[in-house]
Design a protein that fits this description.
Layout lengths: L3 E5 L11 H4 L4 H14 L4 E5 L3 H14 L3 E4 L8 H10 L3 E5 L21 E4 L4 H11 L9
Bound molecules: 1,3,4-trihydroxy-5-OXO-cyclohexanecarboxylic acid (DQA).
1,3,4-trihydroxy-5-OXO-cyclohexanecarboxylic acid binds next to loops.
Length: 149
């Protein structure tokens, strides 16, 4: 099994201090450490990345697709704007679980649309850092794609 790639979009580097009422106080480094620890107990490696640049995320999705690595993707603000990220998922064939810390459906109207959801295998949102954790559980359980995507 290839490493599990955890890809994070813009402003997630600010977690911990960014709008704590919405995103909590856990930092991205803490999320990374917790995922690495959990994955390692089951013998899985983790590639954990964050960028504020859309092209980096496109590149990383393509790289994951090329080696057959599953992806946990929090595209952050690009979720709601990026056809390029959706194209990267479709074009590379990467297996992607979309995650969000917050419940985007309970927030501003513009957050209700995701370009990622239609091309992701599934979506987990609203559980804070636990959203990442649940996505990791799915990937480590070896669950097959459910046929809905
Ligand atoms: C987010 C939700 C997005 O709407 C927002 O732009 C983010 C974070 C989340 O994890 O809740 O940056 O993806």
């Amino acid at each position: 099994m290839p490493d599990i790639h955890v890809l994070n979009g813009p402003n997630l580097n600010l977690l911990g201090s960014r709008e704590p009422a919405v995103y909590g106080t856990t930092t991205l480094a803490q999320i990374e450490a917790s995922l690495r620890a959990k994955a390692s107990t089951r013998g899985f490696g983790v590639v954990f990345r964050q960028s504020n640049h859309e092209g980096d995320l496109v590149q990383w999705i393509q790289e994951a697709g090329a080696v057959g690595a599953p992806v946990i993707l929090n595209a952050a603000g690009y979720t709601h704007t990026s056809i390029a990220l959706a194209d990267a998922i479709m074009g590379s064939g990467a297996r992607v679980i979309e995650v969000h810390l917050s419940n985007v459906h309970g927030r501003e109207e513009f957050r209700r649309h995701s370009f990622i959801s239609a091309v992701a295998e599934g979506v987990i949102l609203g559980f804070g850092p636990k959203s990442y954790d649940l996505a990791l559980d799915v990937l480590m359980s070896g669950g097959e794609k459910n046929g809905n995507s």
